Amino acid sequence: MGVTLSRAVQWSSEEAKIKNTPLNNDILKEILLFIEGFSDRYPIEARHTFTEPLQWKTSLQPADFTSDVTLYDISEEFVTSNMCNDEGIPLLHLTPPDIKVNTFDQLCNLVQLNKDKKMLEAQSCLEANRDLMKKIFGPGSIASRENKLYNILQELDEKLLNIAVRPLNRASIEAVNTEVNLLKGLCGTGETPVLKSVCYTSDYVFSNGCRSPPWRHVDGDLCSLIIETCDTEPTLFITCNTKGVFLNEETSKGGEMSNMRDIDFYKDIVSLLKNKSLHFAEATDAQGIGSDGVSSTDEIPRVELANGEKTVKSPKYLKRENKKAFEKARQPSAHKPSSRKKTFEPSLKWKNLGLMCYYNEGKEKARKNRESMKILEHGTKSQGLETKKKPNVSGSSLQGLQSSQKIKTPGGLEDFSESSSDSEEDEEQPERRAETATDLPSEYWQIQKLVKYLKAANQTATVILLCALQDFNLVQETCQLAIRDVGGLEVLLNLLDTQEIRCQIGSLKILKVISCNSQIRRTIANLGGLQTMVSILDSPDKELKCLAAETIANVARFRRARRMVRQHGGIKRLVELLDCVPAGESLSKEQEEDLEVARCGALALWSCSKSSRNKDAIRRAGGIPMLARLLKSPHKNMLIPVVGTLQECASEVFLKSYRIAIQAEGMIEDLVKNLSCDNQELQMHCASAIFKCAEDKQTRDLVRQYSGLKPLVTLLNEAENKQLLAATTGAIWKCSFSMENVAKFQEFKAVELLVRLLSDQPEEVLVNVVGALGECGQISENLVTIRKSGGIQPLVNLLTGTNQALLVNVTRAVGACAADPDNMVRSNGPWDVQPVQAPHTQPFALITGPRDLCLPYLLIIDRLDGVRLLWSLLKNPNPEVQASAAWAICPCIENAKDAGEMVRSFVGGLELIVNLLKSQNKDVLASVCAAISKIAKDVENLAVITDHGVEDEKLRRYLAEAIARCCTWGSNCASFGEAGAVAPLVRYLHSKDPSVHQATAQALFELSKHPNNCITMHENGVVKIIQEA
User: Fold this and answer.
1) Mean pLDDT: which of 96-105, 106-115, 206-215 is highest?
2) What is the full DSSP assignment across 288-346?
């Protein structure tokens, strides 16, 4: 915003204060609008910490921050934000009247807190922080141009500059163009031409009518001319400005103009040419062209400019202009300029300013109309091209209808240019219809006839026709498309703009039903219907608000519609609908109406909450306390959308504040209570909310304290309802992260129920079931239960899948099972389990030979090919799968009685695991090092490594490099010392390979950062070895 503050904003003479002018007010309003929606549009960039905080004098007091105590630490003398930067400094600090702000997120909060005086607050901030870009990005802001935030602010700067050039008066532009056309008519090749040539320096016309470059518009430049007269040298370079016309100086042969302007301004081009060219003055006086003199202003009409100055037009000049235009119109086309004249295209920077086309208002309007009609067609017949008639509803109360019968523009360009981080479904696919006219039922034509009558009906007839339309089965797709194809959606949406409640209610009742159709939803959004429905939410009529909210809930099922609701203030209005105190079972009529309004508001918020930015907007609008209050309602139809909204909001990873707020508002107890209700849909949403909130340990503890674990285990018996089963198993998985909960699950026999769900279930259920078994496997008694319940074989079977999340969990579960020695023991006995055949190409050969049979009734992992399948997963491209598989291999090797033979049976297996030491992923390196440490316990494995072409020195090198990399993360340095890795690593220094020396020295350097490791190194003589090296 640096260019705007220095060039566009109008400062006082001392340049310390911003003037109170219309232009400055427009710029401040645009900046405020940008700041208010910044956190919703760019949540990641909003948390960017400024290099230097913005400081200014504010009118805010600590009492103003009490509306959101979860974000600020408030005292009587100061306010600080709970969030801090990397150095522990609060992102906002207020000591009235001084305030410091470090992020755009905090700026957005300030604007919302100080709504009454936000213009003065923004003005004070800009006056005190003239060099914004330097404070945000630091002195080296030029190096930040690849930063997305930098580009966003540059776009704002260009938008503000575009606002600054709006005051250019079109009258002055047209006057210049007319005068230039007149002078071009005076050019000729005869013996005594008035002028030799007149031409613009640029043929490109911007959208505001100017021909000068955009950065000159701020100074009022309209265009530049090159004029050759008959008696002056050199050629004249002239600039037309809103203040007048002045002469430039040519500085180069290329025709570039100097920025040094003459101080002499002329009222028009003719006056300047008369002053510079005697021949032109004599010729024009002879023909009666030009003004009578600068002093004779009484005869000259003046045109008021936007900057308060005046320019002039001569009566004779205007008369001559009209005459010349008439004569040019009568000239034959042969005298017109060639249509093959070279045209110039603007640069990308000019296009970004929005100055993208030749200014022609009529053509532009026609183009927009054509685009709107194409959007409305959707492949239908020519009915979509019919001119829409206005319903002639009589009565003074419907005067607003006549002005509202226009097709609303579809959403605006801003909606589509906004970057979005929403992780929801893509835009719905366009319709493909194959029906012919003969396939359509009679209802289709009857509805179209009613809609045509509706277009020309009066007030009473409109209500009757709306009732007649509701008598049809509008749930049927044919009836829905009949309304759309004949242009009925435009009529229904335009009725929403009237002040007649009956017409609005009738229209919304129809729109609520037909908006369940995906194509209808898209068309409503394209026609701007969401903006109208959002405005209806402010209506005092409760039924009208309910219908509008329910329709919004149906329409906002795709990304662009949700974005439009947020950008037009819909989230805040919907949150306000939740302001209802839940009562008991018996309600008065008024309480029922209030409860229905809140239910519809929650329903709309549920649809909107699938957008990550809308989730944050709901929180900012104060939606969490209201949802918590409604959660105590005994009415299940209210609870379903409320809990649905909560579980959607709690799913966002970076919105941890939602989960904290859910805990703080005491909602966990209500969620647990509703797990025992008789409504499976409500149970599913409650379990899903617990699933997403149980990432936090406090939530897991609360679920256990409120006796929520047993209802979750009970819900595992509802195997037919897959959605409920997925939510329940997910909640059990996340709750089992705490060992106290695992002990409770063991008490409630949850492991046996989970094992039964390992087959014939969808993948979303299996991921959760296997994850829960992996966590429960941390207790040895549960491992015995898994084995006795027959859970090992289905777990090994799942190792052949392709779902990455499932593979991560199943490898963890198999590794936990392998920790039980009984699951790896071999002895004599019958064998009735066939090994699992992997569906993909085997990465290595399996050496077969005589082996002992396993224990009876026990599914042994090795005999089930479990270890081979785990080893094959080391080739999976997903680092999480690789790391989880390597960790699972460790207990398999450790507890197998003939581990050496088992490892050597995989031809190419050791080479595969050694190659993973080249990985850049720290988890993969740590797990592979652990696996190799188990493998290396068998002496014969070193010989096998050599047989496979992997040298002992190479293995040592990669092991040392892996240890060095892992030591830089967390407490790995101490862990390696405790695991006894330091002493063997010192012996690596005796190697003759320089690469091993280098890697070992790096690893020892990292390990030496822990004091206990230094003692071990000294005891093993590392000092002497290093000195000799």
Assistant:
1) 96-105
2) T-S-S-SS-GGGS-EEE-TTS-EEE--HHHHHHHHHHHHHHHHS-GGGSPPTT----PP
Tens of pLDDT, residue by residue over 434-478, are 444 557 888 888 998 999 888 888 888 899 999 999 999 999 888
Q: 3-state SS of the chain: helix, strand, coil percent to 5? A: 60, 5, 35
Whether 537 contacts 570, CB under 8 Å:
yes
Contact, 108 vs 36, CB < 8 A? yes
Dump the DSSP string for 225-292.
EEEE-SS-SS-EEEEEETTEEEEE-B-STT-PBPS---S--BSSHHHHHHHH-HHHHHHHHHHT-S-S
- Cα–Cα dist 223/257, whole Å: 12
For 716-732, what is each residue's pLDDT tens digit? 998 889 999 999 999 99
Residue ranges matching CATH 1.25.10.10 in the chain:
443-560
Alpha helices by DSSP H, 748-898 = 750-756, 763-776, 780-788, 792-797, 804-818, 866-872, 879-895
CB distance 927 to 886 below 8 Å: yes
Q: Is residue 824 a contact partner of residue 862, using CB atoms and an 8 Å limit? A: yes
Instruction: For tokens 């092991």, name the residue.
Output: 959
| DSSP structure string for 631-688 | TT-S-HHHHHHHHHHHHHHTT-SS-HHHHHHHHHTTHHHHHHHHTTSS-HHHHHHHHH
3-state secondary structure of 517: coil
Residues 724, 726, 730, 732, CA torsion sign: positive
Cα(68)–Cα(65) distance, integer angstroms: 6
Q: Please indicate whether residue 724 or residue 307 has the higher confidence score (pLDDT).
A: 724
Structural fold of domain 443-560: Leucine-rich Repeat Variant (1.25.10)
pTM for the full predicted model: 0.55
Query: How many C-beta neighbours within 10 Å does residue 877 have?
Result: 7
Report the alpha-carbon distance of residue 871 to residue 873 in Å, rounded: 5
**Distance separating alpha carbons of residues 538 and 544, to the nearest angstrom:** 10
